[in-house]
Amino acid sequence: MAGDDSLDRETLSSMTVAELREICKERSLFVSGNKSQLVDRILEDLDGEPALIPPEAADALIMDEGPDDAGEPIPLVVGAERTEHAEAVDHLIARLSGERQTEEAVDEREALEAGVMEAELVGPEAEVATKTAEITTPSDAPEEDEASLVITIPTFSSLSERWQTVAAIAIVVVLVGALATQVLQRNSGFTARSLHYGDQMDFYVSESTITIQGDEMLGLIRDSADSILDEACGQLTAVMSGTGQVAISQGSEDGASLTSDSLGRGGFLAVEKRLSMDLDIDLEGRTWRDSGDCGNVGWSLSDNKVALDSTSWVELEDRDPKRSDSTISFTDIDSRTTNLRAVTYGFGGFGGLGTILPTLAFPMTPIELHAFFDDEVLVAGASSSDISNWNSEWTWEVKPEISHETHGLVYPIEMQQEDIGQCYGHAYLNILVKRDSPWPVEQVADIVFDKDLRTNDCNFLVSSLSEELLPGGRMSISMTMSKNTGLSGSSEVDWGREYLKPSAGEDQPSSSTERNWVDAMWDESEIRDFDLEEAITCLKANHSTSDAAMAILEGGYFWQAQWSQPSGELEWNLSWVDEDDRSGWLVLRSTDSDGCDAIEQGSNDDGDVIWNRNAIPSTQTMALLEDRILDQARYPDLQSEIAVEGAWHSDAVVGYRLSVSEDNQLFSFLPGDLGDGKVTMTAGREWDEGGRAHSIDLAMDSETGEMVTWYRIDRPAE
After folding, report:
1. Which residues face 540 on adjacent strands?
2. What is the dihedral angle through the alpha carbons of 322, 390, 198, 254, rounded to the nearest 10 degrees?
3. Quick check: 312 and 371 in contact, CB under 8 A?
4. Which member of 15, 154, 260, 386 has the greatest number of CB atoms within 10 A?
5. Which residue ranges of the chain lie beneath pLDDT 50?
6. CA–CA distance, 4 with 479 (Å, rounded to integer)
7. Predicted local distance difference test score (pLDDT) of residue 50
8. Are 473 and 175 in contact (CB under 8 A)?
């Protein structure tokens, strides 16, 4: 600075701290210290040679705090220009702590400058320092002295006074950290979300077809569809589209719902699941040339409507399916509606067919992800082959995450049913899964059943069952379901909840009441006159030369029998088979004189029915089973349809049916009772009412006393 001689103590004391520091910089002096120290340093330098700072001191940070500085925030100043981030931080801290800058700060600045400590890197004049660290209080300093970033560091004595500010900043840091963690871990996969009471998903059904080729397989479907498909033969294609909904009910028992089981016992807590679909269906195929001769003439039935509503109950503690209640309404283009209601109790009572039905049903409705994948992490590259104890026939592999145009970020999963692929076609299922969705947001099924496609890798048991149970022909199913909207439920389904419920074996017929067959299943009814034992005795005594009586006397048996009372007359329709696989039937009617008349009889082609006495299981009596069926408390919805005041309806048909497989070496290798016969008690009736034809049928396991299914059909009367 020019005019050094004029710099005396009085002149220097009248200068500001900033001006004194500028003089120190020009003379290569330290710029730290308060105002009096700066004045002394400059005067000392005027009396002698300038004192150059040693090189090692250029990197030092000199922080000298006087007594007046204690308890004040220490701003750390970096750079030459204040940034918007620094201003935002200062503004946030000031707002949270209630501090307000006032105009008085300008007047206080000169008073505070004497207590400010400043640390600055100082180099030779030719090399200006690029980094400055100032210790200063916030002030409206001249523009050239303003820093780019100021971080206020409170001293220990001020922390207690500003705890609200510190807590607020800590919360912000935690929240930002959590958000960053979510973003960074998004590609680390997730486990399927458990079901919640109140969960719901609406979905679309599109690009869906069912094609059946071969009259044996089509005949099975045609017979199950009442008269709807009577005109179809040889080939049938159904094209479907529409909407659907899957939901978990919010029951009255802390989310759960009460239900009953196949034995008619109440008191079970269950998760109630609902499925509904409203579909448009077009049918086309081939039709008959004449009776029994399928031609090449095209047949179509367009613009049909199908409404499906199904409710199922899965027991809460053991996850045991207890019951399902489904209704299907089919309306054709002429507004003629056929309604079906079917109540089933699991697949166990369907015998060998019960092993195939779940496989077919699984991909046809939205699958429950957590029930299938459990707690496996769904991430790109994960697969069922990596899981040593994976126990499902369905294998799967997760593909890399993609961004779907409708559903956003999703993981594609490719699934395949190995047994079907090796034995009778293929079953592929491609799904898109998304975090926090208990069902796939998209599901595409591709299924083919054709036992002619069996490979050499086919499992022996599956091959045997498919050969025995699957009809000839080919069924192809293609179905696409995609999410439309969804709702999340309130609380997670508490699988495994313990509660008081009927125990295993309670109120169930025991093996001690089972009877071995002689000629037929034991009847011993007390509510039906002319029981089966009386009928067989009368047959042998009065019609001993009939084919039916001779078959029984020579080791045959009645594999099916039905009691009825048409026009008030009691009669049995008896179907027999002998040791040579000859079979036939006979209608035996009771007479007033305790006798019986064989009013009709006939025979089947040899081999149509297989004799296999060794496969006949021990069964309960028909009397015991019918008492359970007619119990109002067990199956209340069934009673109004089949019974009147605890007895069979006057037009009811009651009986049993035995199904046995051919007696050969094959079934001696099958596990459990798969090689044994199955006996079901059956009952049903048909009637007309309100211009519509009604029918109801039921089937009960004759060994265990468990209801297998009952179903009701009503349709326009002819």
Report:
1. none
2. 60
3. no
4. 260
5. 1-3, 49-86, 88-89, 92-93, 95-187, 663-675
6. 96
7. 44
8. no
Calpha distance 172→176 (Å, rounded): 6
Tell me if 77 sits within 8 A of 136, measured CB to CB: yes
Cα–Cα dist 603/551, whole Å: 12
In terms of Cα–Cα distance, which of 648, 641, 624, 615 is closest to 706? 624
Q: How many CB atoms lie within 10 A of CB 487?
A: 11
Q: What is the pLDDT of residue 562?
A: 98
Q: Distance (Å, rounded) from C-alpha 506 to C-alpha 464? A: 35
Contacts of 441 (CB under 8 A, 6+ apart): 404, 407, 410, 432, 433, 434, 482, 483
Burial class (CB in 10 A: 0-12, 13-18, 19+), 678: buried
**Bridge partners for 135 per DSSP:** 76
List, as one string, the DSSP characters of 160-191: GGGHHHHHHHHHHHHHHHHHHHHHHTGGG-EE
Question: How high is the pLDDT of residue 48?
Answer: 59
Q: At what angle do helices 17-26 and 35-47 cross, to 10 degrees?
A: 30
436 burial (CB, 10 Å; 0-12 / 13-18 / 19+) is exposed
- Residue 482 to residue 203: CA distance in whole angstroms: 5
Q: What are phi and psi of 342, to 5 degrees?
A: -130, 130
d(CA 429, CA 444): 6
> Are residues 68 and 76 in contact, defined by beta-carbon separation less than 8 angstroms?
no
Contact in structure between 99 and 152 (CB atoms under 8 Å): no
Which pair of tokens denotes residue 458? 């086919």
- Annotate 569-585 with three-state secondary structure: CCEEEEEEECCCCCEEE
CA distance 360 to 362: 6
Say what the pLDDT of residue 8 is. Answer: 84
Alpha-carbon separation of residue 549 from 506, 554, 572, 575, 581 (angstroms) = 41, 9, 14, 11, 15
Q: CA nearest 490: which of 199, 191, 269?
A: 199
Angle at 249 between CA 245 and CA 255, to 5 degrees: 155
Of 34, 9, 10, 7, the C-alpha closest to 23 is: 7
Strand, coil or helix: 325: strand
Contact 438, 368 (CB under 8 A): yes
| Cα(132)–Cα(117) distance, integer angstroms | 13
Record the tokens describing residue 587, joined without a space: 């209608």
pLDDT for position 559: 97
DSSP state of 617: P
236's enclosing H/E stretch is strand 232-248
Please give the single-letter amino acid code of residue 450: D
Tokens 């064989």 appear where?
Answer: 598
| In 255-292, beta strands by DSSP E | 257-259, 268-290
Residue at token pair 């996969």: 189
- Do 562 and 654 meet the contact criterion of CB atoms below 8 Å apart? yes
Long-range Cβ contacts of 386-389 (<8 Å, 24+ apart): none
Q: Rounded to whole angstroms, how far apart are CA atoms 415 and 413?
A: 6
pLDDT (0 to 100) of residue 126: 40
CA–CA separation, 359 and 477 (whole Å): 13
Identity of the residue numbered 433: V
Return all residues near 81 (Cβ < 8 A) that are at least 6 apart: 146, 147, 148
Q: How far is CA 689 from CA 106, 327, 342, 695, 718, in A?
A: 100, 20, 20, 11, 12
* Residue carrying the six token digits 């040693």: 54
Amino acid at 87: E
Question: How far apart, in whole angstroms, are the C-alpha atoms of residue 587 and residue 594?
Answer: 16
Beta bridge partners of 38: none
- Tell me the three-class secondary structure of 329-381, residue by residue: EEECCCCCEEEEEEEECCCHHHHHHHHCHHHHHHHHCCCCHHHHHCCCEECCC
For 9, the enclosing helix (H) or strand (E) is: helix 9-13
Q: Give, in order, the Cα–Cα distances in Å from 53 to each of 17, 340, 443.
A: 20, 101, 77
